[in-house]
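FORM 12-B: Structure-to-Sequence Request
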């Protein structure tokens, strides 16, 4: 083959790669090439999962999860923490027990990983690091929950798994077995895990069997509502790194069903039936967002969808799936709250709306808003995808826990 053809080939391959890797990023992103490579690898996994589904080999989410769990690590203890895989109430957990001698009872963090209720594992390298460092730096017992995932186990099973682990740990005999102070227990999670943490904190308030109260909840770019998927953040960040509007709609709909009619209704924001219209006040961004996030967006009530969908899949109107649907009275008793949001994230407005509603209900809230980053940034704290912004967000989260838990 002559040199010209080789060069032409090289040019096409380079152009294709550049097209695939290069995405326009906001100017304030640090380490833009790292972000592009992370985004490109996610895109590749998504395309491969889509191909597997089209060929009838495997469900999209199950194929995607194979890639997500490629970097799972065995439970490995180190000089700071003893790590074991075990079960609490028949639910798989990874347990981190600090080795440092404690002069009194320890704090505890129950952590729920993200992944749209469909992906992820407590053993993923990034989650293992996050929970291991949390245990070491806070000298805290950390329970990272491997709840069962959709599409195999749909709502409410993932919620029930994390709830039963939390309830198990909060028993006084279990707390004392691990040397945990009953007044210093926190639930935390990122993304779908933040959704589960918020739902667990709400549910515990109504559970007469639980005597121990949570001290705090930490919600990292949480998904908190299923009703309005057209808020300014959904519109402005539809194609930003890691979590597009399309993927978020797919995650949300898969949590309840693989029926494409729910996904299509959610994608066009026409899934809320008129009989649930009273719930829209709880997610009305025109009342709950600060002016600078509204920009030139004009609020319109979503177009009402069929009652049939909501009757078939009532989960998406359930407060355990959409914690923003809790009434003001239900929010009042919630513990100290930490919320992290990212500017370039479809879920940004969920966190802002919850912070506004919690404050109005008198709950002490610390809301950190990271203007220079995207959804999932805190997961990138280990090589090769090691982002400075990921470490910054993680350190901020740990500082808050250290001061408040």
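FORM 12-B RESPONSE
SEQUENCE OUT:
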């Amino acid at each position: 083959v002559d040199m010209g053809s080789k060069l032409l080939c090289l040019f096409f391959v380079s152009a294709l790669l550049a097209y695939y890797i290069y995405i326009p990023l906001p100017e304030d992103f640090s380490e833009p090439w790292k972000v592009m490579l992370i985004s490109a690898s996610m895109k590749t996994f998504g395309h491969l999962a889509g191909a597997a589904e089209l060929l009838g080999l495997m469900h999209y989410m199950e194929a995607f999860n194979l890639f997500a769990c490629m970097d799972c690590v065995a439970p490995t203890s180190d000089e700071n923490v003893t790590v074991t895989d075990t079960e609490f109430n028949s639910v798989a957990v990874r347990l981190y027990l600090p080795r440092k001698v404690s002069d009194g009872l320890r704090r505890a963090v129950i952590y729920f990983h993200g992944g749209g209720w469909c992906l992820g594992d407590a053993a993923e390298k990034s989650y293992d690091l996050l929970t291991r460092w949390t245990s070491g730096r806070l000298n805290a017992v950390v329970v990272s929950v491997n709840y069962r995932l959709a599409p195999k186990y749909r709502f409410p099973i993932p919620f029930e798994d994390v709830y039963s682990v939390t309830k198990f740990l909060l028993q006084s005999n279990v707390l004392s077995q691990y040397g945990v102070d009953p007044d210093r227990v926190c639930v935390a999670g990122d993304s779908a895990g933040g959704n589960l943490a918020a739902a667990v904190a709400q549910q515990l308030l109504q559970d007469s069997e639980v005597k121990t109260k949570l001290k705090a909840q930490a919600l990292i770019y949480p998904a908190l509502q299923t009703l309005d998927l057209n808020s300014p953040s959904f519109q402005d960040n539809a194609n930003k790194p890691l979590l597009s509007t399309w993927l978020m709609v797919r995650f949300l709909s898969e949590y309840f069903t693989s029926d494409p009619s729910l996904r299509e209704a959610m994608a066009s924001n026409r899934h809320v039936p008129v009989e649930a219209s009273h719930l829209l006040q709880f997610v009305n961004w025109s009342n709950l967002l600060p002016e600078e996030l509204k920009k030139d967006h004009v609020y319109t009530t979503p177009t009402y969808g069929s009652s049939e969908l909501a009757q078939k899949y009532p989960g998406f109107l359930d407060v355990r799936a959409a914690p923003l649907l809790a009434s003001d009275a239900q929010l009042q008793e919630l513990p100290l709250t930490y919320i992290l949001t990212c500017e370039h994230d479809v879920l940004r407005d969920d966190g802002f709306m919850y912070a506004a509603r919690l404050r109005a209900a008198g709950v002490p809230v610390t809301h950190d808003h990271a203007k220079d980053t995207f959804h999932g940034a805190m997961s990138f704290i280990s090589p090769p995808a090691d982002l400075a912004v990921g470490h910054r967000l993680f350190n901020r989260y740990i500082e808050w826990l250290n001061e408040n838990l």
